[in-house]
Amino acid sequence: MLGQDLVDVALTGAADPRLSPGCRAVLPLLAKVTLDPDGLSAADFAPALAAGVSRAAIVEALNVGYLFNTITRLADAFEFHVGPPAAFASAAKRLLGRGYK
Questions:
Q1: What whole-number distance in Å separates Cα of residue 9 and Cα of residue 95?
Q2: DSSP collapsed to 3 states, the chain
Q3: Calculated CA dihedral for residues 57, 94, 76, 31, nearest 10 degrees
Q4: Domains detected in the chain
Q5: Residue 27: which of 4, 53, 3 has the closest Cα?
Q6: Is 97 a residue whose pLDDT tops 90?
Q7: Tell me: the pLDDT tens digits for 14-43?
Q8: pLDDT-derived band of residue 100, with 50, 70 and 90 as boundaries?
């Protein structure tokens, strides 16, 4: 399991050897797509491509980001209650136990 500390590192954009160069290059792109989609340009894709991330992997990352953004917006619109961190840890263990990686 990744662990909360690595998730925190990824969200802050800090360089960490546990995150691949490709992952570190794609995260800012996903942040821009989420926070400033109208400002997105071809230049925003260059760091990921330069880090060796394939176009297919970028599309997959964008699709995952799209789904999470949609889920978050729906949850906000319907005032969905998010459970405590312990509930997420429990759900992650169940998912990992069923082969989700």
A1: 23
A2: CCCHHHHHHHHHCCCCCCCCHHHHHHHHHHHHHHHCHHHCCHHHHHHHHHCCCCHHHHHHHHHHHHHHHHHHHHHHHCCCCCCCHHHHHHHHHHHHHCCCC
A3: -30
A4: 4-97 (1.20.1290.10)
A5: 53
A6: no
A7: 778 888 899 999 999 999 999 999 999 999
A8: low
**C-alpha–C-alpha distance, residues 51 and 15, integer Å:** 14
Written as six digits, the tokens of 91 are: 């759900």
The pair of structure tokens assigned to 65 is: 């980001």
Residue 27 amino acid letter:
L
